[in-house]
Specification:
- It is a single chain.
- The protein has helices spanning about 10-15, 25-35, 45-50, 75-80, 95-100, 115-130, 135-155, 180-190, 230-235, 240, 245, 265-280, and strands spanning about 20-25, 40-45, 65, 85, 105, 160-170, 170-175, 205-210, 220-225, 250-255.
- It is α/β, with parallel strands linked by helices.
- The longest helix has 21 residues, at about 135-155.
- The protein is globular, with a radius of gyration of 20 Å.
Length: about 280
């Protein structure tokens, strides 16, 4: 397995950093804060974050502010944050947030732009904003080194493009393009994305399974869980079984990754992809 450097901060570095009480509404900002060693005192939708993002770990004593789309403002105020971390996804209640504490909003996802460079830059941006620029530099150095290590280990897999998909049902898939976190990370690893059509900074809205037939040479990578009903239907699908990557045993599976995350999510995706390629193909059903 490729050895990748995790985004960790030493105890000495954490102790030297100025203490600030952060509250994170946006998950990418939550990941970024953790990566630079400044765990928020409160964050949104933590139960789902722990299930969907898996890593980085969030301690149980961090206050859960409820849904990202409708945070609990009373709990947020009681958390006494010095800075609230958000993104342009939540501009509709930014004024309300500013009545509680200053707000830092960083853009990770924008149509047509690869988000990984923005996620890496956010490590520096957030660290500077809270007066601990060294933490950002260290986190970014570790992240870049980790990605370089994974890229080196994946050099042997550059012979074929990679198709990244999520399966909703037996007839439709979502494809991750170059302006998704996964697609952007794929490029950083030196791999070609088989999906060249436009997406909307996350994934293309569900498209017919037949679209995968246009990628006969690709390694097909399924990100996340395949619904039970879809697995059953795929096992009986003539179309699915006839797809060259499926028929020729070029199908791989990854565990859940936060598709709207920051640098930690990109590293998790990279490490899972490297492990899957080195372990070998798997069946989707």
């Amino acid at each position: 397995m490729v050895a990748a450097l995790p985004l960790r901060v030493t105890a000495a570095a954490a102790a030297a950093a100025p203490a600030q009480r952060l509250a994170a509404i946006d998950w990418a900002m939550l990941e970024t804060a953790i990566a630079i060693g400044h765990m928020p005192v409160a964050a949104s939708e933590l139960l789902r974050f722990r299930a969907d993002a898996v890593t980085p770990a969030v301690p149980r004593d961090v206050t859960d502010l409820g849904l990202r789309g409708s945070p609990n403002f009373e709990l947020l105020q009681l958390s006494r944050p010095d800075l609230i971390l958000t993104s342009p996804f939540y501009t509709r209640y930014e004024d309300k947030l500013r009545r509680i504490a200053p707000v830092l909003s960083l853009t990770f996802y924008r149509p047509g732009d690869p988000p990984l460079p923005r996620a890496l830059a956010a490590l520096d941006d957030l660290a500077r904003a809270i007066g601990d620029p060294g933490a950002g530099r260290r986190a970014r150095t570790r992240a870049e080194a980790a990605l370089d290590g994974v890229a080196t280990g994946l050099a042997a897999f550059r012979d074929r493009p990679v198709a990244l998909i999520e399966i909703g049902d037996a007839r439709h898939v979502r494809a991750f393009g170059p302006d998704s976190l996964f697609g952007s990370t794929l490029t950083r690893l030196g791999l070609e994305n088989a999906w060249s059509a436009k997406t909307r900074f996350s994934f293309l809205a569900p498209v017919p399974m037949e679209r995968l037939a246009a990628m006969p040479e690709a390694r097909l990578v399924i990100v996340g869980n395949v619904p039970v009903e879809a697995r059953r239907d795929l096992s009986r699908s003539v179309l699915w079984q006839a797809l060259p990557p499926v028929r020729e045993n070029r199908l791989y599976r990854l565990e859940r990754v936060n598709a709207f995350g920051g640098a930690p999510a990109a590293l998790r995706f990279a490490e899972l992809l490297a492990a899957a390629f080195q372990t070998g193909p798997r069946r989707a059903t």
